[in-house]
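User: For my dataset I need records formatted as: sequence, then structure tokens, nothing else. Please produce one.
Assistant:
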Amino acid sequence: LEILESKGLIKWLRYVDDVFATLENKESAENILNELNSKHQNIKFTLEYEDNDQLPFLDACVKRHTTRFNTTLYHKKTFTGVY
């Protein structure tokens, strides 16, 4: 993680194969994505940017505020409520 911190990583949280990270700026995000994707030819990370200070992550919608994050339940557009 030290290499990624030098490229602008602030926080790195992982759940199984999903990562939630906070970064200094979009340029840092691209640099970190390139660094991660250069490590193994069969493992490729993708990137999603927040929209309107919020980002879906797993089954949560993470909302960014000045000093904290809040979460609410998130459903994809294809959610039908049927299990």
